[in-house]
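stuck on whats below:

***
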Amino acid sequence: MNNTLKLIIAVALPLVVGGLSGFFTVTGVESWYQTINKPSWNPPNWIFGPVWTTLYILMGISLFLIWKDDAAGSLKKYAQLLFAAQLLLNFFWSFIFFSQQQPGWAFAEIVLLWLLIVLTIFAFARINNLAAWLLVPYISWVSFAAILNFTIWQLNK
């Protein structure tokens, strides 16, 4: 498979997952989320779409750099497995928080997501430093999201 096709697939994968999870987000934001207590520093709803789109693109480029690298197969498989696992948790966070309206469970899930992203960054760094650095905005945003999630959970007990 040539690198152009690998790049398209690698970027499309997180964008598709993000688009699917976006369904739960939009549905939740337009309903119960408007009625709950949120901190004064809660970002406006319109910012989440552009931020997540950018993060998904960076994640895809990062995955592409790992996929095309000639590192040992087992090292790449482990890194790609971690990437897939964190992407799956990324998807389920929106479902748990917005669709199931469970900020407490969503917080527990985002802590696991955060840990998997950190593990993914370290695994990617063993193969390609740029791939690891491209995930830094993602872990930064998820860190902020975790704090926001926790605060919303506490404000709405």
Observations:
- The CA atoms of residues 75 and 126 lie 8 Å apart.
